[in-house]
Amino acid sequence: MSYVTVTDLHKTYAGFPILERVNLSVEKGTFVSIVGASGCGKSTFLRLLLAQERPTRGEITIDGQPPALEPNRDRGIVFQRYSVFGHMTVRENLIAAEALGATVWGVLPSRARRKAAEDVADAALERIGLAHMGKAYPASLSGGMQQRLAIAQSLIAKPRILLLDEPFGALDPGTRASMHDFLLEIKAEWDMTVFMVTHDLSEGFKLGDRVLVFDKVRWDPHEPHAYGATVTYDFDARNGGIPFQSLSIETVEEITV
Ligand SMILES: Nc1ncnc2c1ncn2[C@@H]1O[C@H](COP(=O)(O)OP(=O)(O)OP(=O)(O)O)[C@@H](O)[C@H]1O
């Protein structure tokens, strides 16, 4: 059953189409990787899922409802920019994130709640190799460390939908592989639905259940901004990359008319 449904989605900025005719049906717990040329609208698509932007035409539903207008704990997000709180220590950032996503707080007294959040934060600090930096402030961390902290913070808040925009860009290959493992573990534990934009195709296939390619079907060299991008390929990454769904002939004909 479809959990995230996108129907005939269009997004235009100042008269320029960025996305057009995007249709998608994603089941709960699916990891969707998104690739495509720079500027083709991948981040815009994530912002539409996050309700930071409204569609120009068409509709998105999440579990049958439009995306909530106010940010809520249902969705976590890691953009290229680091999203951690600068006035809190590394450990406090993780405790705050656990507080957001806690599932057992209703039955625990406040001291036990705090202890439970601290335990989760400390386990995450170990897991991402930042146990020695718990008392530091984010500004004193390297870019890669801040990125790891931002990813851990989003994961332990346990959002139903996790939106990741090039989350591993700043990491060295070893750290990147260990953060991949961490993400897949938490995703499996909480049955999260994930949308991740990446420029690294092998990363997209390694982590994704599906790999979507955004591209322009229509292109006019005299008017490069005349048309928007859509999903041109939808690969089943769990089945050797065999196309799962590609743009139907009718849609191509309709678009190229
Ligand atoms: N708020 C905005 N107002 C006007 N134009 C915008 C706005 N946000 C994005 N755009 C334009 O929309 C297009 C798509 O941008 P977007 O960031 O979604 O692309 P992208 O595929 O994520 O690119 P990249 O891979 O380089 O990060 C770009 O041409 C960008 O300039």
Structure notes:
The chain has 257 residues and is an alpha/beta fold. The chain has a domain at 1-67 and 193-257: Rossmann fold (3-Layer(aba) Sandwich), CATH 3.40.50. Helix content is 33%, strand content 27%. It has 7 helices and 10 strands. The strands form 2 sheets. Strands 5-6-7-3-8-9-10 form a 7-stranded mixed sheet, with helices on both faces. A 3-stranded antiparallel sheet has the order 2-1-4, with helices on one face. The longest helix has 18 residues, at 110-127. The structure holds adenosine-5'-triphosphate. Adenosine-5'-triphosphate is lined by residues 13-14, 18, 36, 38-44.
List keywords for this structure.
single chain, 257 residues, alpha/beta, Rossmann fold, 7-stranded mixed β-sheet, 3-stranded antiparallel β-sheet, binds adenosine-5'-triphosphate, ATP hydrolysis activity
Give a nutshell description of this structure.
The chain has 257 residues and is α/β, with parallel strands linked by helices.
| N-to-C CA distance | 33 Å
In terms of DSSP E residues, the strand content is 25-35%
CATH class of the domain at 1-67 and 193-257: Alpha Beta
Identify every distinct bound molecule in the structure, by name, code or SMILES.
adenosine-5'-triphosphate
Return the structural class.
alpha/beta
- The succession of helices and strands, N to C, reads EEEHEEHHHEHEHEEEH
Number of helices: 7
Spatial sequence of strands, sheet with the most strands: 5-6-7-3-8-9-10
Helix content: 25-40%
Number of strands: 10
* Mean of all residue-level pLDDT scores: 84
Rg calc: 19 Å
Q: Tell me which CATH architecture of the domain at 1-67 and 193-257 applies here.
A: 3-Layer(aba) Sandwich
Unreliable stretches (pLDDT < 50, length at least 5) are none
CATH superfamily of the domain at 1-67 and 193-257: P-loop containing nucleotide triphosphate hydrolases
Largest sheet: 7 strands, mixed
- Overall geometry comes to globular
| CATH fold name of the domain at 1-67 and 193-257 | Rossmann fold
